Amino acid sequence: MSIQNNIKRMTAPQITARKGGDPVVSLTAYHAHTAALIDPFVDFMLVGDSLGMVMHGYDTTVPVPLDLMIMHGAAVVRGSSQALVVVDMPFGSYEESPNIAFRNAARILKETGCGAVKLEGGAHMAETISYLTKRGIPVMAHIGLTPQSVNVMGGFKTQGRKEKEWESLELDATAITDAGAFAVVIEGMAELLAARITKMIPIPTIGIGASVDCDGQILVLEDMLGLSPRVPKFVKEFGNLREAIQNSVEAYAKEVKARKFPSREHVYGMIKGKGGTTRKTGSDK
Ligand code: KIV
Predict the structure, then answer these.
(1) Residue with the nearest Cα to atom 4 of ligand 1?
(2) Residue 32 in domain
(3) What is the pLDDT, as a whole number, of residue 273?
(4) Less crowded by CB within 10 Å, the N or C end of the chain?
(5) Rounded (5°) CA angle 2-67-144
(6) How far is Cα 178 from Cα 203, in angstroms, rounded to an integer?
(7) How far is the CA of 142 from the centre of ligand 1 (A)?
(8) Is residue 196 part of a domain?
(9) Catalytic pick among 96, 163, 165, 187
(10) pLDDT averaged per 10 residues, the chain (length 285)
(11) pLDDT score recorded for residue 2
């Protein structure tokens, strides 16, 4: 990663400036190669801690370590050159105190080259968000269904479907805005409330399982590509990679068993002439 490279990228303030304008397009990315593929189409890519469930087989995001986020974050930065890269702060890396959060967020920025971090939580995280932003770390907030709190919520539960829940969710939205978050992910929230919060706050809302009226949308890449075994209601599968991969692997296995692969075009022949060979083999025949 060069500084030059980072300057050409979308920045956190440019995302904030999109409030109420063209919808912000975003997806998760965990690897250099998928980052390169989605880079021309997204405004920002999120190295989400969902990678613990999607790639590493955990049931929740709770076990994801900071070092793993940094490793994937650096790969995504290396693979992309235009989109802002936002890296999730994993459970346990920021809740204890603003200065521990700063130490870990600074590690993420320094060691990955990303342009911002994301952390979960509303009003109770406002002090930390303010501490980080005042010290040079752009923070994307995340309210509504916050998967790192799965053990407190008793499952992945949609928020705000009862009107009596609205007040505290609205307070979360205003608190993280006042604290200086440059944008906020709204996950798993009743559509009406997500739309209302979008009107209420001056920073972009990025919806996932929220509302088409949010200022932007995000999905987990593997979900929208049709690679994930479980498809939640809020996911639209824009592709069917599950079937494409299975068909390709089945075809490969058949050809290996039938000794059809590798064929002549995929093997190396001998070099002819001095010090080489006169034998005719493989692709030289
Ligand atoms: O970890 C993640 O992928 C996320 C998105 C679902 C917003 O936080």
Answers:
(1) 48
(2) yes
(3) 79
(4) C
(5) 95
(6) 10
(7) 9
(8) yes
(9) 187
(10) 61 98 98 98 98 96 98 98 98 98 98 98 98 98 97 93 96 98 98 98 98 98 94 96 97 98 96 70 50
(11) 45
Ligand 1 atom closest to residue 48's alpha carbon, by position in its atom list = 1
Gap between the Cα atoms of 8 and 89, Å rounded: 24
Ligand 1 mean position to 283 CA, how many Å? 49
Which secondary-structure segment (H or E) carries 199?
helix 191-200
Distance 271 CA to ligand 1 centre (A): 53
Interhelix angle for 66-79 vs 98-112, to 10°? 40
- The pLDDT of residue 233 is 94
Q: In this predicted structure, what is the pLDDT of residue 277?
A: 62
**170 classed as catalytic:** no
Residue nearest to atom 2 of ligand 1 (CA): 48
Distance 61 CA to ligand 1 centre (A): 10
Query: Which residue segment(s) compose the domain that 74 sits in?
Result: 12-239
Question: For a substitution probing ligand 1, which of 58, 91, 218 has the most ligand atoms within 8 Å of its CB?
Answer: 218
Q: What's residue 209's pLDDT?
A: 98
Q: Are residues 148 and 255 in the same domain?
A: no
Q: What is the count of structural domains for the chain?
A: 2
